[in-house]
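SAMPLE LOG
Freezer: B-3
Tube label: C17
Construct: single chain, 561 aa
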Amino acid sequence: MPLPPAPTQRASLLSQAGLDVTSKPTASGTRKNTAPADKTPVKNTRFDPVGAAPDVTEQRSSKKSRANALDTTLQAAPVATVTTATSPVTKRSNKTRKSGQSKLFVLDTNVLMHDPMCLFRFEEHDIFLPMIVLEELDGHKKGMTEVARNARQTSRSLDALAAQGTDISLGLSLDGTGHTDAAGKLFFQTQTLDVSLPSSLPQGKADNQILGVVQALGQRMAPREVVLVSKDINMRVKARALGLAAEDYQNDKVLEDGDLLYAGVMALPTDFWSRHGKAVESWQQGSHTFYRISGPVVPSLLINQFVYFEAPGEPSLYARVTEIRGKTAVLRTLKDFTHLKNAVWGVTTRNREQNFAMNLLTDPEVDFVTLAGTAGTGKTLMALAAGLTQVLDDRRYTEIIMTRATVSVGEDIGFLPGTEEEKMGPWMGALDDNLEFLAKGDGGNAGEWGRAATNELIRSRIKIKSMNFMRGRTFMNKYVIIDEAQNLTPKQMKTLITRAGPGTKIVCMGNLAQIDTPYLTEGSSGLTYAVDRFKGWAHGGHITLARGERSRLADFASEVL
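STRUCTURE (predicted):
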């Protein structure tokens, strides 16, 4: 925050306004009393939001003055403005809020390669990059992997920041490239630091060199807090063993706890009819009944959220929120897919959540559906049954496109021969199992020839595609199924969803308890990301399936193993 323009008032008036002209800031940030100044105007010096810095011409005089300038700039000082948002690493303590002290975060290489935009997600705090981090970035920039692309993107961001034309030893303003949320500065290691790590740690290892930089900065910048940010668990453990502050990078996590994930279903309170019954308006439209409600339950509702009321001796209600205006909401009753007359490709739903999911899958106004649940809850079977009905019977979509993340549970068995679909064949065992069940149910009375013809017809309308070749494609009037979506990163999920063209419906399914990708968690999975971002959208819906229907053995194993 820049200071006001040079004052023109008398010294007595300035002191009344809260500005002390008889003292000046020192390098440590405290004020030192000097002799009373005369009544000449005070010279307006440059204000540094991180700390008071000496004159630039003096800093450039020698290497020694450069080092002093870096120490002075990195010293703790109150920042001009402290926002109330939380840090991307951890929630800010009350002490930080009150004192307004900014931290100095030392980033590990894996953080930069995990999120190339992490440099701009630390709000008013400063960032320090050791020289070994730049060396490791340079070593990982070659190739077509996700890590190599992120390393190149980080290098481009660093180059844009360094091109500002300012002295690197004083720090580079992170908001210089248009990222206004980043109010801190970026510092590079421009000199050798005095490192005194235990002799038991190999000195040549990159991780230990970064730990040495954190320790030296902590001693040099005291009492300012210096924190290591790393995605490497062992790195954080070693840092804490050395008495250094270390934290995980959590900005990529949508949720801290998987149990907080939006379920898409809400049970109405037991006193719902007694509290809301008098003000409820109802009307009939086609086969659906609509209810307009108002009251304390409305603020907690979202568009396309399912609500239900079950109480002994009172009428049950199963509905979906279709409209929210101010303090009122409109509920629409559902189609009962548990009844045999409403079977979808011979499949009837067996529980409440499955019925909710089938209403979403068969609604042409819903373009994006996410299904989460444990093994055996019927995600793939319902998605395929709804897709076949809408492709072959209703002619709403031209074909079904199915893809999934090819992440092995155990050791990789090597390259697979054949075309794209043949290579994807071993990954589509769930598709084959469910198609066998669906074909048997539809052509059970037609004999062997009838089942073979049904199988051939179904296979002709289902295309199996690899995720590796999705970039640049556009699916028009397609029914797209993304299986095992919990193994996708948020970036991969965005790539797949943005392939949707006019008239396309996308169904994402996954089990957050079966993440096989080593660098993803329940909070950072692409499925969690999509569910959280799409909740409340008028053309999207989510259901968490709670009860398994595969077999009593599978249900018991899901609970106890």
